[in-house]
Amino acid sequence: MRVEVLLPQWGMGMSEGTISTWLKKVGERVVEDEPLVDVEAEKVEETVEAPATGTLTEILAAEGETVDVRAVIAVIETD
User: Any idea where the Lipoyl-binding domain is (predicted)?
Assistant: First the structure.
């Protein structure tokens, strides 16, 4: 099953975030709640955790790219 990883909203005024560092690469296995990517938002660094266990099959937002809240930033294919 395909699970989309969305950029969450950490604060009421947050409308976008910048991808700082991907902690996993395409093709790597991830476990639910495992740190997946660091994001800078509102001058604070936050970590997005994997929403499911599976394989990271797509990264849709490159490091340094700014994306809107709720945008799809990656895809995990579950077992």
Answer: 2-77
Residue 46 near residue 58, CB atoms below 8 Å: no
User: Three-class SS of residue 51?
Assistant: coil
Question: Exposed, middle or buried: residue 40 (CB in 10 Å: 0-12, 13-18, 19+)?
Answer: middle
User: CB of 57 within 8 A of CB of 75?
Assistant: yes
CA dist 55 and 13 (Å) reads 32
41-50 per-position pLDDT tens digit:
987 899 999 9
Average pLDDT over residues 24-30: 98
